[in-house]
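Journal club prep — side note

Before the paper discussion, L.F. wants everyone to see what a predicted structure for a comparable chain looks like in token form. Sequence:
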Amino acid sequence: MSNSIKAKRRPKPFAINPNVRLNDPSRDRLKTNKLYVSKIFDWFEEDFNGDIVGFILKYAKGGLKKRLESNKGDIVIKYLDYDWSLNGK
């Protein structure tokens, strides 16, 4: 299978509306200097140019955005368990 065909079939995380997901504290959240994000960020890290914090900063709002900006160099990424039951929805 050619790379162009694989690329077309590859899922696009957050393609629908990253603003909703990334600003929902019940999903991705920042505690002190630890940013807890979906395991999808780990699996598709190259899609985010290896800069997950930078990607999230593009869509973050309010207090989340301010805290990310002020602590960007010190943030440690922690990956949440993926909820496989979501695949059936």
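L.F.'s comment for the group: The helical segments are 3-9, 18-22, 40-43, 52-59, 62-71. Keep this in mind when we get to the figures.
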